[in-house]
Each structure stands twice: as C-alpha cells, then as structure tokens.
Amino acid sequence: MFAEGLFIAFSALSVLGALGLVLFRHPMNGAMSLIVTMISLAGLYALLSAKLIFVLQLIVYAGAIMSLILFIIMFLNIQDSDLPEEKGRFYYLLGGLVAIIPIASFLIKLVKSIPESGTTIVGNGFGGVKEVGLVLFQDWLLPFEIVSILLLVALIGAVVLAGKRRMIK
Amino acid sequence: MEHTATYLGLIPLFPLIGAVVIGLLHMLTCKNDPLPEKLYGALACIGPLLSFFLAVVVFVHLKGMPAEDRFLVHNVFTWFAVGDLHIDMGFLADPLSSLMLLFVTFIGSLIHIYSIGYMAKDQNFGKFFSYMNLFLGSMLILVLGSGPVVMFVGWEGVGLCSYLLISFWSEDTNNVLAGNKAFIVNRIGDLGFVLGMSYLFWAIGTSGFDYLSLKANAPSIDPAIGIAVCLLLFVGACGKSAQIPLYVWLPDAMAGPTPVSALIHAATMVTAGVYMVARFSFLYSEFPIAGSVVAWVGILTALLSAIFGMFQKDIKKILAYSTVSQLGYMFAGVGVAAYSAGIFHVFTHAFFKALLFLGAGSVIYALHHEQDIWKMGGLKEKLPTTYKTMLIGALALAGFPLFSGFFSKDEILFSALATGHTGIWMIGVFVAGMTAYYTFRMIFLVFHGKPRVQDSFDHAHEPPAVMTVPLIILAVGAALAGVLNLPAIFGGNLNVSHWLAPSLIEHHPHMGIGSEILAMIASVVAVVIGIYIAFKKFGQGAEEPEFKGFAKWGYYKFYVDEIYNAVFVQPYKGFGSVISRFLEPNVTDSHVRFSSWIYRKAGTAFKVFQVGYVRVYAIYMVIGLSLMSLFISQSIN
Amino acid sequence: MIQDYLILSVILFSLGILGVFSRRNVFAVFMSIELMLNAANLAFLAFSRLHESMDGHVLAMMVMAVAASEAALALAVVILLHKHKGKLDTNVFSVLKG
C-alpha cells in the first residue's frame, strides 16, 4: 500500500520533470526539471530493491553529471537574447507526437505481453554492493575493463578538445 | 589398318619451336646489341632440316609397309569433344601427305639457306626467319593434319604468315596494303571453307571427323549436299590458291621479299588448295559435276592470267601470273579426277617455280633491287650460274620435252582429253603455248641482247655461294623430276601415281597409245611455236613498246582490281562511314547518354533530402523508426 | 506490477524523443538524450527485478559510465561550438548541406 503510493508519487514527479525539460525555454529551467526527474528515478530504483544503483544514480547522475551541465550553462552566461527563437516548437511537438505514437504503442503492447507475476520476495542481498560486485567481477569482467578504457578515452578526448587554444577565425 | 608413329608430331614442332626461339631472341636483343646474323641463320635452318630428315624417315617407313596399309597416325591430344563433335589434334602420314612433306621440307630448307644470303644486312633479319619458321610449321600442320579441322588450323596459320611476310618491309605503306589485301581476300575464301566443313560435319561427320572416317562414310552422302560441300570447299581453295575470282591478291603479294614469294606464293602455300581437293578425292570423285566446275574455273584462270603475264614488265609479276596460271592447270587436273597428275604437277611446279623465283631474286640482288625487265639485258655474261639455272627452270615451266614440267603438264592435258573434256584440252594446249611465249620473253629480255641501262649492268655481279648453291640443286630437281612419273610410252612406270593410289579414289582413264602420242605432239608444237615467237620479237634485244589496244588492257590486267574496288570496296567503306557518322551518334550513343542523364537527374532530385541540419536527420531516424514499428505491429496482428 | 515500471520507462523514453525532435537549443537536445538513457536504465532494473538476476544492475552501471563520459565530451564540444559561432542554435551549423 505504502509502496504503491510511493510509486505513484515518484512516477508522477518524473513525468512532470520530463515535461518540464521538453517545454521550458531557458536551459537552466530545463536542467532543474531534469534533476527532479533524476531524483524521483532514484526513488523508483530503490523501490525496485536496487540499492547500489539508487546510490549511484544520486551520486553520479544527479550529483556529477547534472552539476556539470549546470556549470556549463552558467559558464556560458546565457542571456535571453542568446537563446534561439523556437517559433515552430508546438508544431514540431505535435508532429513528434504523431511520430511517437506508433513507437510507443508498439512498445507498450510488447510490455503488456509479459506474463503478470506476483511480486516475489527477494533475498536480503539482492541489489546490494556485494551482490553486484560478485557478478561484475566474475561474469562481466571484460565489459568492465573495456568501459574503463572508454573512460580513459573520454578523458583524453576532453583534454584534447579543451586544451589547445584554437582561435578559429 | 593404321599404325601409330609418335614421331609425326615432331615434324611440325621443330620449325614452330624455332620460330618461338628466334622470335624471342630477336625481340630481346634487337634494340641494344643485335646477335650475329650467322646465329639466326643457323638456328633458322635447323628446324626445316630436321623436319626434312623426319620426312625422309616417314617415307622410308611407309615404303616398307604393304600398299593398302600405308597409314601412320599420331593423335597428340584430344582438342575438344562436344556432343557428336570429337576433334583430335592428330597427324596422318599416308602416301599423299608424305609426298607433300618431302618437297615442302626440302624446298623450304633450300629457301631458308638462300635467304641467309638474300636478307643479309637487313635490320629485321631475326624477325624474318622467325616468321619463315612459323610459316613452315603451319604448312606442315596443314599437310599432316588428320582431319579437316586440323588442316584448317594450318590453313589459317599459313594465311597469317603470308600476311606477316608480305608486309615485312612495313615502312612502305604499299607493302602493308598488299598484305592486307592478301589476308582479306583469303578470308573471303575461308568463309566458303568453313561453311563447307560445317555442312560436311552435319552430313556425315557425326561418327568421326577425320579423313579416314569421312572416306568410309562418303558413299552415304546425299548428292545435293555433297555437291554443295565440294563447291564450298573449292571456294576456300580459290581464295588460298588464287583462282578466279579471288586471284587478285597474288600479284600484289610480290611486294614481299623474293624468298617469301618463292616459298609461299609458288611452292607451298598456294598449292594447299590443290592438296585439299586431292584429300577430298573421295567426295569429288562421287560428283563429277563438281569436278567439272573445278576444272573449268582452273583452266579459265590459267588462260586469263597467261594473257596478263604476256604484257607485264616487273619480273616478279610475270612469275606471279605464271604461278596463277600453273595453279589453274593443277585445278584442271584434279577437277577431271586425275588427282595424281595434279599432285605431280604440284611437285614439279614447286621445283621449277621456286627455282625461277630464286633466280629472279638473284638478278634483283645483283642489280640492287631493280625489278623492271625493260631496264635489264645482256646479263648472260655477268651472271652465268643464274642464267643457266633460270634457263633450265624456264624450259621446265614452258613444258619443253624431257624436262619435268613437260611430263606433269602433259599428264594433266592427256587426262582432260581422256575423260572427254576436249574444250579444256584445247584451251590447255593454247595456254601452254602462251606460257612458253611469256617465259622466254622474260629470259630473252633479261639475259640476252645488249644491256639497256649500262650503269647497273657494270655493277652487277654473281651473288654469293649461299644463294647460288640452292639454285643449282633446284635446277637438278627441275630437270630430272620427270623421271619419277614417266608414262608407259617412255618405258616408265607412273611411279608417283602408283605411290599415291592408296590415298586417293581415282579412275585412270584409258585411251589408245595413238591418241596419247598425238596429244603430246600437239602440246610440243604449241611450246615450240611460243618459244619461236618470243625469239623473233625479243631475241635480238628490243625496246619497250607503247601499249595500245588489247596489249594495254592486258597490261592493266583488264582493270579487274579497279572494278573490284568500285563494286565491292568503296560501297563497303561507304556503308561503314554511314554507320559511324549517323547510326552510332544518334542511335547507340543516345541511349547511353540517356541512361547517364537519368542517373544525374535522380541524384539531383534526392539531393533535396540532404539539408545539413543534424536535427532533421534525427527526425528522419524517428520517422523511420515509427514506420517500422507500425509495420511490425501490423504483422504481429 | 513490473509492467507499470516498464510503461513508465516507455513514457519517459518517448518524452526524450520528443525533446530531441522539437528543440533547437543545444542543451535541450543534450538533456533529452540523458533522459532517454535514464529511461533505459529504469527498464534494465525492472527486468532485473523480474528475473531476479544481477545482470541488469551491472548493465545499468555500464550505461551510467558511458553517459558520464559522453556528457563530458558533448559539453566540451558545445563550448567549442559556442566559441566558434556565438550561438546555441543547432540550425546554424549546416556545413553538411547538399
């Protein structure tokens, strides 16, 4: 009962946040809405017994990535005059809705075809650090290493991109 | 019935290997450091001499076998076997091909030796001998072939080498045009040959397309088809052996070096047509009417070219028309089903015509490439060996009694008379007289009387021994070859005819001894009259006359070349230019241009979608995704 | 029960696509992409809960790592673009036209 109420609250908040992202004009407002969505998603993860991911979502996503985005937005010192005039926004929205509806309905149909099963009780360790760690370093070792290389590449890329003072005239 | 002899394949192989080796050596060294001529000469003569040796071996081998059994076969490999058509690259040595082998290799070797002297100091010495060896190899394939298809391989090969050798001095465009003419006219004949061959295969060749099987199946051929095949094959022979209407290439072919004229256009290649008719004797003797057509075309060609020969002034052209005329005699012989007489005339003609050409080459060499007989004269003292040997050759050609030409020509004329072709006999006797006339006209103008151009006369000298020794050897052959086929009156045994009998299907006609002697006397009288007239007109030296009337027409060869040009060549060229100027740009090119235009327009049309905004590309992706999910959800339902 | 989570994931994903579709602002586009990644994460975790296996969690971690690196690089590019043209409009950059 309590869980259902939480679920409804968190999902409503996340959808509202997403709508805010799509509709707000200034990117700062959009970023704020996105943070709301992220936090409510973290709550949803907790409801799904994903303890580690819940924490990681809050730390990495809502904490690091969104703050990075906010930092950049503020760094560029965006005034209202810098923002593009998005005149045809609503028409594009409507067209997008038309394009989205087949995709969404197809996906929902797929989802509904999953056999409904009662919520099972999971063991205590499910979603905990130890469990995730065991699987990560036994079955998923190679992807783990490759992702670390990916992060290295991103690091080098960022340094290269931001490094040289390329004055492009 | 037939025996295998694996050395048969070597006979054409030696000259072919020689051709390849000499050709490679020449190509690799001619630019920077040319090899000594002696080396090329030695390499070039090895092939023909080895083939001559093997030809003698074949002859001895066959002589040792009983007469009905004289067939040696060697199948080198199966060329192709498709359905009913099974062709082996095979060689057949029987009496007919062994006789041809002997004189082809013998005279070929002599001419190779002669060419070492004649072509000395020529830049392309090595190339010449490569081509000559290639020619000899192809001729041997033609003669030794075990079936029409292998013969055709050699047939085409000698045509190619003829073209290569005629246009050997290719810096002069006229030589190249002469080579083109030879090849193209030959090709027209080849069309007839191929049609005849295909028709023959369709009629009786399905159980084996080599001579021995065809001979066995020949009686079962349908008469209409048989006559058609005979005539079509004869069209091919007309092209190769220069009969009416395809003789026009032979006089022009004199543009090539004289040894080439001697070997190819006198002794060997042009006799391939006669050999072919003799080979197919099993067909021609079934259909006498086809034989009559062959004989009449032959004798008319003899008459026409003798007329032309009487008025020419280039020494080689006189001999060229004489060759065409003698070929006409040979066809007259094989046409009246006297195959052995025709082949015997091929044999003797090879000797004396090669001799005459090589002698003419001697004269040309001595006078530094002067060929107009009205600029020669009195060379008797300066070139004694050449004079004596050419005199022997001329007597043989004219058919003077006791020389070889007399016996062979007489045999043909007598067979014509005996099979009832009196018209052919009469024209033959008349042409014999004309032959004597123009031959001795040439001899008297070149060697007797006073020199017409003093300068070249003073510089003339006898050519070196490498050129005169072959002349002497050939003169001996020209004089004495008649011994081989002496008719009964002279106490002989018709050895050649008996030797050839297993290869041919021949009926020997019989007329009384009296008519034979009468015929002989008639032809001797004609010959003597011809020599006498020539002596009266030219014996004491004469000046070049102005040609008027009939003589002028004769000199200009009745304008046949010009007529061919106007009727065939120019319209064909016009047709070609119509195609290239109107048909091609408007019909074919426009289609190609149209398709490229379509593609360009389509590309330009599709360019509209490439706007350059990344967001729009993302929109394209989403639209594609939604369409796909629509499609999938429909098909799930 | 799990279906509700999955339907929510689909809704969030569609909203992300709408964002990419209709916004011209560079930041808005970028943040919509992040929203889509989060929706995918939610789906992973829902399925992991359904099948009671840890693989979904691990994958969600991988997705987060990728998203982080992509965020860093994309923002660097945005800064460079802003320096180049002075505008934040995606329609200004049309060099690929034609």
What does this protein look like?
The complex is a heterotrimer of chains A (169), B (637) and C (98). Chain A is mainly alpha-helical and 169 residues long. Chain A has one domain (2-115, 126-163): NADH-ubiquinone/plastoquinone oxidoreductase chain 6, subunit NuoJ (Four Helix Bundle (Hemerythrin (Met), subunit A)). In chain A, 74% of the residues lie in helices and 0% in strands. Chain A has helices at 2-23, 27-47, 51-75, 89-112, 129-138, 141-163. In chain A, helix 1 runs antiparallel to helix 2 and helix 2 (27-47) runs antiparallel to helix 3. By secondary structure, chain B is mainly alpha-helical. Chain B has three domains: 1-286, no CATH class; 295-555, no CATH class; 564-636. Chain B is 71% helix and 3% strand. Chain C is an all-alpha fold. Chain C has one domain: Helix Hairpins, CATH 1.10.287. Chain C contains three helices and no strands. The radius of gyration of chain C is 17 Å and the shape is elongated. Chain C starts with a helix and ends in a 13-residue tail after the last helix.
List the helices and strands and how they pair.
The complex is a heterotrimer of chains A (169), B (637) and C (98).
Chain A: H1 2-23, H2 27-47, H3 51-75, H4 89-112, H5 129-138, H6 141-163
Chain B: E1 3-4, H1 10-29, H2 37-63, E2 72-82, E3 85-93, H3 95-118, H4 125-144, H5 148-166, H6 173-204, H7 211-217, H8 223-240, H9 249-252, H10 258-267, H11 272-279, H12 281-284, H13 288-309, H14 315-335, H15 339-366, H16 384-398, H17 404-418, H18 422-447, H19 454-459, H20 465-480, H21 495-500, H22 513-538, H23 549-555, H24 560-606, H25 614-636
Parallel strand pairs in B: 1-2
Antiparallel strand pairs in B: 2-3
Helix pairs in contact in B: 1-2, 1-4, 2-3, 2-4, 3-4, 3-10, 3-15, 3-20, 4-5, 5-6, 6-8, 8-11, 8-13, 10-15, 11-15, 13-14, 13-18, 14-15, 14-17, 14-18, 15-16, 15-17, 15-20, 16-18, 16-20, 17-18, 17-22, 18-22
Chain C: H1 2-22, H2 26-51, H3 55-85
